[in-house]
Specification:
Layout: H1 2-10, E1 19-22, H2 26-37, E2 46-49, E3 58-64, H3 68-81, E4 83-89, H4 97-110, E5 113-116, H5 124-132, E6 138-146, H6 150-164, E7 169-173, E8 182-183, E9 190-191, E10 194-200, E11 205-211, E12 217-224, E13 227-232, E14 237-242, E15 249-252, H7 258-272, E16 278-279, H8 280-301
Parallel strand pairs: 1-2, 3-4, 4-5, 6-11
Antiparallel strand pairs: 5-16, 6-12, 7-10, 8-9, 10-11, 12-13, 13-14, 14-15
Helix pairs in contact: 1-2, 1-7, 3-4, 6-8
């Protein structure tokens, strides 16, 4: 489904370009057609194909929006078939540690520029916070809620705080995760509840916590040196208490959808050779610590030996 949202945005690109929607599963392509038919008219032609071999040998930009378990194989096939200028990969990148190094080496050899779609770095609201925290360093952050999918979505917030804090990851602690695991909404994948503790090189500490619920909710609490921020993305609402001010400020912002973002990163890449998303190298360092912490947890409660982290 996420791939169709990328497509829905990219069809609004201006200039002379052509899009290819690739999926071996025909119903997925039919869903893309239906979504575009229900959208306003667009001028970019789309070809629907089932095999990597049906793509041109020269590709300016490729978005790989598969599940994590098959993504490495798709990227290998893609780079073997075509020269790719820019590559956007969805998270979780891959399920096994060796795939991060293997795909990283292949991307470097192919000369492609690769970014990972942790899109909060593109939100104008968080870009404004980034400027604010240049002179107001982050100290302690919590991301807490119910039913939001810690294993599936935790990397988004680990990435966001690395960005806002201008820092790199030091260590992730998984000892506060709840015993066992639960079946993900996606067949064949697992989820966890409880909390992860994340330490950054700057000294900032992040806690991400999730409890089981059919109804998702999430709140972000940021304690900086001179200010305190409470953010509820689903409401587009942020409360700010600054040091020395008696009254709390109320800030409203827009949470952007993927169908609003893909056109922007594509235009940036095609005109500026870069975009606001996380580089593959930086994202790899964040991902590896994340999946290793989860793998350690899953291994404790699995009756089978695991060589992959079964999340997506």
């Amino acid at each position: 489904m996420l791939g169709s949202r990328h497509l829905q945005s990219l069809v609004d690109l201006s200039g002379s370009c052509k899009l290819f929607a690739l999926d071996s599963y025909e119903p997925s392509l039919q869903r893309c057609r239906s979504i575009l038919e229900d959208s306003p008219k667009h001028g970019v032609p789309v070809s629907y194909i089932h095999r990597v071999e049906d793509l041109p040998r020269q590709l300016d930009l490729v978005v790989v929006a598969t599940n994590a378990d098959i993504r490495a194989g798709v990227v290998r096939s893609l780079l073997d078939h075509a020269h790719v200028e820019f590559l956007i990969l969805e998270k979780i990148l891959f399920q096994s540690v060796h795939e991060y190094y293997d795909i990283g080496a292949r991307i470097e050899k192919a000369g492609a520029k690769c970014f990972v779609n942790c899109p909060r770095r593109m939100y104008p609201f968080y870009q404004e916070l980034f400027k604010n925290f240049a002179s107001d360093p982050l100290q302690k952050v919590s991301v807490k809620g119910k039913g939001w999918g810690l294993a599936c979505n935790g990397i988004h917030f680990i990435d966001l705080m690395a960005y806002l804090g201008r820092t790199s990851l030091k260590k992730i602690h998984g000892d506060q995760l709840h015993a066992g695991f639960i079946e993900s909404k996606r067949t064949g994948f697992l989820e966890v509840n409880g909390s992860l503790g994340i330490e950054y090189e700057s000294g900032m500490q992040l806690t991400i916590a999730c409890e089981d619920s059919l109804q998702a909710d999430l709140e972000i609490d940021i304690q900086a040196t001179h200010s305190h921020w409470s953010i509820v993305e689903s409401q587009g609402l942020c409360k700010v208490k600054r040091q020395g001010q008696e009254q709390e400020e109320l800030v409203r912002f827009q949470t952007l959808y993927q169908s609003q973002l893909s056109k922007k990163f594509a235009e940036d890449l095609l005109t500026r050779d870069t975009c606001e998303l996380t580089s593959y190298a930086e994202s790899t360092s964040l991902h590896l610590s994340f999946i290793e912490a989860l793998m350690q947890h899953f291994t404790q409660f699995s009756t089978e030996a695991l060589d992959r982290c079964p999340i997506t």
